[in-house]
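Hey, can you fold this one?
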Amino acid sequence: MMWCLSSRPSLVLQRRRFKLETTTTRWDDADIDDECEKHNRAETIVNYALESGKDVVVADVGCGHGQMSLLLHSRGVKRVIGIDKSQNEVNYANECLRSFRRKSTSASESGESGDDDDDEHQKTKNKIEFRIGDGLESVTEENVDVVIFAGMGTKLIRKLLSRGRSVETSSSVRTLVINPPAGELVEFREWLWQNKWCIEKESLIIENANAHVVMKCTKKTGEEKTLSVLDLWLGKLQEEKKSSNVKAYAINRREYAKERMGVLEGLQSEGRLRDERELERYRNAYVALASWLEEEKT
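Sure. Predicted structure:
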């Protein structure tokens, strides 16, 4: 049985046989291990947020049913604000919160928790809430420390980061935890850097046969530097030299760059290439990724 990591933005991994196309690359099962299956995506996002400590205010933008917010709440974060523009999603999230509190109360009353746990539950009752809103525009009074963007495209994330009461104009926001599509990262990494955000960490997670990237960003300080090709195409993942999953991701990105090179070189030969710089970018990416992969063999 084979794994497939598509070069399309969704980067779907599928355990099935298929016709090999120019947009896909395959590896034997031995080349793709299950190291990241042990690390649930939500757990990784929460752990990144908790690196800022528990005495923080976290905004979970696009919270959906509120599972991430509830997980943060259960870990003792000082305050969690779940935000979603869908009334139905917010209603469902509040139902989940009520269910969570009923179970906590029931556990306390049945003696499964001690008095200290019960007191702690009472103290934390008002530390989580769900609001209708589009991005941080619904957060008008709180000083948010950490903002989570999970399960949305980079175009929307950039839009939400830039408009209204954006994190760029908020002095309190220190950390972003972002889960963008794994196939949309080159331009997004560059955009983050240009907008004064430094990527501190990245994790590649394989979950339900899908590839996901979770990144932690902090406000940029210190001297400016020029991002390398690998900084854009692999980011902090390039430091995971022993990860076969990262290697698979790098192979996928290399083949994608090669495919784009072929298309653009075809246009160039026909005199229809509009921007020579685009072709040069993909050539540089292919060379850099190929070189990185060769180094990993030694």
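The chain has two domains: 2-32+242-297, 38-226. Let me know if you want another pass with a different chain boundary.
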